[in-house]
Design brief:
Number of strands: 11
Number of helices: 8
CATH topology: Purple Acid Phosphatase, chain A, domain 2
Distance between the termini: 5 Å
Length: 267
């Protein structure tokens, strides 16, 4: 049995140097078979530095996707280019956007992924105008109107769903269980603020509904197979049983301390 550690929203750019070294030291001490990071690792200006910092000290497979904060102060296009170049230098650094699928357990368990994006399809989309992404990410900042920015975000979400659908179709031909890494949750129930007065505010910013619907449609008649979505973004840990063969595991925002049971995956 292999043991993987799962982290999301580490935001290492907000931590002090000794915290960063302690984080990696704890990972070394745990000696996992692999590390899974589901976005908001740092920010656009520091994402290459922190991924290099981690991969140089860990000789284990690292599977990751990027979150919205990982593009801050840069363009999405520029980050995509630099992360592709970085991964070409390290054979154990796997950005799931550029990978069709990988095996975690031969013919039984596979892993795929894509960064994803929130699509504003639930809740009141007007609240998207208050989020920092539209200011901090170059592509959004250059667009002038709300409608243009909203359409650009929906296009990111739709493309992520299209790419992931192709990967999932191929993975389900091979594996009984498929882990999907993405940054945003795929269903309302996994969002922050559900059931509170903040629900309407958070929903358009927190969920990739289109991706969730695609996964549900694909898994509808696959009773002997299972999909487990691992994500973050909302900083509140949860496990949602989307369907009898679909789970959505949200990792908490993780800054300090060693891994907990919720951060551990056994395969």
């Amino acid at each position: 049995m292999k043991r993987y550690l799962l982290y999301s929203d580490t935001h290492l750019n907000f931590t002090l140097p000794w915290t960063q070294y302690n984080f990696v030291a704890q990972l070394k001490e745990e000696n996992p078979d692999g590390l899974i990071l589901t976005g908001d690792i740092a920010c656009g200006l520091t994402i290459e530095y922190f991924l290099s910092f981690i991969v140089k000290q860990l000789k284990i497979p690292i599977y990751f996707v990027l979150g919205n904060h990982d593009f801050y102060s840069r363009s999405i296009k520029d980050v995509y280019s630099s992360i592709t170049k970085l991964c070409s230098k390290y054979s154990n650094l796997h950005w799931m956007n550029n990978i069709e699928h990988l095996s975690l357990k031969e013919n039984e368990v596979g892993i795929i992924g894509h960064d994803g994006w929130y699509d504003g399809r639930i809740g009141n989309p007007i609240y998207l105008g208050y989020n920092l992404d539209w200011i901090m990410i170059e592509e959004f900042r250059k667009l002038k109107s709300f409608d243009e920015k909203f359409a650009f975000g929906q296009n990111l979400a739709n493309k992520s769903t299209e790419f992931l659908k192709i990967k999932l179709e191929k993975a389900l031909e091979i594996y009984q269980t498929v882990y999907i890494l993405t940054h945003m949750p795929i269903c309302k129930e996994a969002s922050r603020g559900v059931g509170s007065g903040l629900e309407e505010f958070w929903l358009p910013y927190n969920v990739n509904c289109n991706m969730g619907k695609m996964i549900e449609d694909m898994m509808k008649d696959r009773n002997n197979q299972k999909v487990i979505v691992v994500c973050g973004h909302v900083h509140v840990a949860s496990i949602t049983h989307v369907a009898h063969n679909i789970e959505c595991i949200v990792q908490a925002g993780k800054y300090l301390g060693g891994p907990t049971e919720h951060n551990t995956l056994y395969i």
